[in-house]
Amino acid sequence: MALSGPQNGCVYKGVSYAVNQKWDDGCDFSCTCTDSSGLYTCTSKCPTYTSLPSYCHLEAVTGQCCKVVRCGPANSVTTTLTTPHHGHTVAGCQDLVSDCASYGHSACTGTYKDWAQRNCPAFCNMCHHSTVTTPPPQCNDKSLCTSLAFKPWAQQNCPNFDQLCQGPTTTSVPCVDKDSPSLCQSAVTNGFCSQFASVRDRCAKSCGVCTAPPSGWQLLFKGVENMGGDLFQLWAGGQTINPLDPTAANLFPQKPYKPDLSNHWNSLCLDKHGVEKAYIVFDARNSDKLNWFSSDRIIDSSWGNIASIPKQFIGMQTDPSTGLQFSVTQTSQQCSTTGWIMVTSPQSNCFYEKGLQKPSFFYSMTNTAVNWGSGSNGSTTTPVPPPTGCTYKGTLHQEGEMWTDGCEKNCTCPKDQSGIAQCVPRCPVYQGLPSQCHVVKQPGQCCGQVYCNFTGMITCNYKGKDYVVGDKWDDGCDLSCECLANGAYSCKQKCVTWNLPNICTLRDPAPGKCCKTPDCPSYVVIQYPPGYGPET
């Protein structure tokens, strides 16, 4: 809006304001005098919700201008939605970037800690305040497993939290929306899915909480020395071990790990996680939980073609003649065992186990079978020194080192002391190319280039590259462009040029992003200009 006024400021409801001066109009608007021509801008202080689910309502809060959204029971979390929603939310503390999980928990510590504190406090468990309307429930209350308000409290104060909440918490949620599509879409748009369990229940499909088989490599089981118990029975049984401890899935610390995935066997693969000493890869397709560990399913091994070598025993269950588990042995006579890999159990009791805790893990350090009774050429997992780098395909790389895996991957050994290499595809993957375009790989090059033939078609030429009508592209972090129907292109500035109140600052772009984002107190409402929004 605009109102003519004195040359050096603005007039609003009979009051004069200097250029760049800011003021509030009660609980209705926050205003700024934009320039000396008398132009000022005002934005609403409170969010507007055009459609709420029937089980949600707006409720006034004493001492606050803006009403808050309440859903489900009266003891819901009190959360004021005054800023755009991003990523995880934990009791009034939310992530400022939407893809914190893609960086992994290694981005929460070390050199990334300051960045994580600013951008991913909820994902990294760095939230310091939570506001609830009732005291936390008792430690035997199953709602602790999903309550965004009480879960952090329970993890710190309930000794039985892991046992209470083992396994996925969304297994029983049917993949349907109980409410209408318009209401569920409104719940997603307003960020209610991450705040209210009742919304997740009634809009399970739209909120994305339906159970689905995981994709990619998954760690199904990790045994460590001195974990106690029978390793095979722990694998075969339906229990889980440290499923909610993300550190247990790494090589260090020495914690056993078994998530609920193996209890719902569905042709899952095994992960080569941590520092690889030796390996056997099995084809687990069309298998069940207990029959994939067999000779006819071996497809690769660090010990060569062991699939075709005669064996006395191969299996994960206990070998009745030796008491060993998860073993591949060639011959065995009392405690003189020749083989490639074996794990001790409560039933095994040979001299070479003396001084070792159970279970202990033995493997051949050569490319052939070895005899552990002779005391040579074999190794146990005790002791295992912390990694000082990353072992990748048998080669040790130092922390911070970068390398290429042929034409397939670019890899880095991170400086987080995890010992796990991080690799990404070396070449871009082109999807949805127009029919006039194809990828051509030149001799001696790893990655192909896109070549297009737009003869006879309307195209836009931008900096020597042709685009068809409707194509959109970015010119670095400067411009976002689109090819128009008349062969011309239209470009606009990619990032907003902000004119913020003095109490706000601009936060540096998130990794991989271009635009700085406003950082303001919770009572300041920031609205993006038309055609702009948070960078995705």
UniProtKB/TrEMBL annotation:
Disulfide bonds: C93-C127
Entry-linked PROSITE patterns: SHKT, VWFC_1, VWFC_2
Single Gene Ontology BP annotation: cell adhesion
Pfam family, one: ShK
MF term (GO), any: integrin binding
Superkingdom of origin organism: Eukaryota
Keywords assigned: Disulfide bond, Signal
Cleavable signal peptide: none
Gene Ontology CC annotation, any one: extracellular matrix
Record flagged with keyword Plastid: no
UniProt-listed InterPro entries: CCN, ShKT_dom, VWF_dom
Descriptive protein name: Kielin/chordin-like protein
